[in-house]
Amino acid sequence: MSQYEPNLKTYERERIVLEIIRKNPDLHHNALMKLIVPEFMAKTTFEKTRDMLIDKEIITAITKANMKFYTPSNNFEVKSQHQVERNTTNYFHDLKSLIKRLDTDYPHKDIDEKINMANLILRNLLQTDNGFTILDAVKNPKKTLYKDEHLEIQQLIHKVFEIIRNDPHSEIIFPAIVSYLEFMMPQNSLNK
Fold first, then answer.
1. What is the tens place of the pLDDT at every residue in 130-186?
2. CA–CA–CA angle 45, 50, 55 (5° rounding)
3. For tag attachment on the chain, is the N or C end more exposed, with fewer CB atoms within 10 Å?
4. Alpha helices in the chain (DSSP H)
5. What's CA 189's distance to the chain center, in Å?
């Protein structure tokens, strides 16, 4: 499994904890832990999974009479959409700033650093574009609301490739970038 693929075990654990919380809304922390540990996961894994669910605002912790209870968050879909929008927009602005500095920073790096930096930037641009695509689909699937952002990402990708083409080591760097991008693109038909 690639480091960029989601960890399915993490999602399975999150699903288990959330499912048990939904089915048992009146269980306090220790009783919930007894249901989950050790049948589904270790204690530390449960605590990390619970913390991730709280951080993602999927569940909320409530304290009553010195006992902690967990409940599914209200309006999770709306909150998650806002979080995706906030993260995607912030990341987009960070990437634009990074690419503005690329003209001066890139030439001073060694070949491996140039390859790693270009791969990182291109991967993040593609992921940011995916974030805007998801937001388009969720908000209004019949209209592209983030048309300007999609176009600007396309222009930023072009600028990164221009910087690579103008580099004295482009014959070495360009094939490494293309090879990496091939890894990120669909490999063959889903029908096979």
1. 999 999 998 888 888 999 999 999 999 999 999 999 999 999 998 999 888 877 777
2. 125
3. C
4. 8-23, 29-36, 43-55, 76-105, 111-139, 147-165, 170-184
5. 25
The pTM assigned to this predicted structure is: 0.73
- Rounded to whole angstroms, the Cα distance separating 131 from 133 reads 5
pLDDT tens digits, one per residue of 103-123 = 899 999 999 999 999 999 999
Does the CA dihedral 130-80-36-41 come out positive or negative?
positive
Tokens of 176: 């490494």
What is the distance between the alpha carbons of residues 135 and 82, in angstroms, rounded to a whole number?
A: 9
Q: Residue 80: CB partners within 8 Å, gap ≥ 6?
A: 56, 57
Mean pLDDT, residues 24-48: 92
Report d(CA 123, CA 118) in Å as an integer: 8
Q: Which long-range contacts (CB under 8 A, 24 or more apart) does 180-186 make?
A: 180/115, 180/119, 180/122, 180/123, 181/122, 183/2, 184/4, 184/123, 184/126
Whats the size of the chain, residue-wise?
A: 192
Burial of 174 (0-12, 13-18, 19+ CB in 10 A): middle
